[in-house]
Amino acid sequence: MGSIQAQPYDYELPSNGKVALIIIDMQRDFLESGGFGEALGNDVSLLRSIIPTVQKLLEVFRANQLPVFHTIEGHKPDLSDCPPAKLERGKGSLKIGDMGTMGRILILGEMGNNIIPELQPKDTEIVINKPGKGAFYATSLQEQLQEKQITHLIITGVTTEVCVQTTMREANDRGYECLLVEDGTESYFPQFKQATLEMVRAQGGIVGWTAHSTDIIQAFE
Ligand code: C5J
Prior knowledge:
Elements (H helix, E strand, L loop, with lengths): L2 E2 L6 E2 L6 E6 L3 H4 L4 H4 L5 H4 L2 H13 L4 E6 L10 H5 L10 E2 L2 E2 L21 E5 L10 H7 L4 E7 L1 H14 L3 E10 L3 H16 L3 E3 L1 H7 L2
Parallel strand pairs: 3-4, 3-8, 4-7, 8-9, 9-10
Antiparallel strand pairs: 1-2, 5-6
Bound molecules: dicarbonimidic diamide.
């Protein structure tokens, strides 16, 4: 493996394949009508534009037998892992735990909480259920990455400025070399996506790198 043309400068892949693909919260709650995203007043169709890109990256990682991690934001049915501040926040038509058209909103195992059909994980891939925005908070992600000796993370998913950025910052603080896929992440707010891309790679890559998927895929061919 070589390097990927990225910003603010080329991203060096580890020579011994210690790189993983992280797919954040590509779940029906955020990408389909009737879910939490729409209940908060968002246009979910915006997020669907990245599905083909994430599918392509997934194919490349699978073809190279490299590890893939999927995350899902969700809570236990009794909401014991949902802090009152998160439960009460916002003025949407539905709150976490309420019954929506795809089951209870943001509750693990409910239809709306499943990963979208287009990106269904394989049995060999790891699915991290997370109660927070960041994928390291109250999960086994750090232990699972360490077990596989992973040092480099290629990060995709939704939404760019919330769960994706939080996870990338958490990973950066834990010493991972993080690359955010510019066309593999999306927000309900295009200006927030753009701002996130710029802020993570500012100051010489203070949180990490960004790159277009075509440049990433080329590096694995
Ligand atoms: C949000 C997420 N936006 N996956 N979750 O609440 O970004």
